[in-house]
Amino acid sequence: MLPCVVEGAGKERGAIRAILSDRSVASVIALALFLNLGTGIVLPILPLFARSFGVDYGQAGLLVGAFYFARLMSDLAAGAIINRFGIRRSAGAGLVLLSLGALLTGLSPSFSLALICWAAAGAGAGTVFAAMYNALLAGVAKARMARALSLFYGAFNGGVVAGGFLGGLVASRL
What we know:
This protein is mostly helical. The chain has one domain (about 20-174): Up-down Bundle (Growth Hormone, Chain: A). About 85% of the residues lie in helices and about 0% in strands. It has six helices and no strands. The radius of gyration is 18 Å and the shape is globular.
């Protein structure tokens, strides 16, 4: 059974400001917002992008599925990757794979190549987000962890929401 009251909760004034004053923590939270803003922008546009290759909406859905399946597989492997190579190197490699996969998806001359590149981007996303989460676990005091994670997931979801709105505006103009 979960306790109704967390010991020490509410005693720390300015805890959010204190958490964000740590530059490394603020960077992780800002990166979560930025990366998910990009994902949110892309999601409403993906069906239109896929249709440009002459595929139907079912096949267009494969793009979304490929990204998140690869991300899931990467999530499962990311712990071992981070343990072996460290948080920074794993985050950097994941960010490069995510960025390069997204760029090559946009430049792909065929749907099948776009599918492969977008799946690679998903694998990068899984690695970079696992590394970011590990950075928070390593860098935030236990007493502030719940608030730090709420900021992280708030930024994560806020990016998807804001990006979805922006992506919808872009898609409606295409």
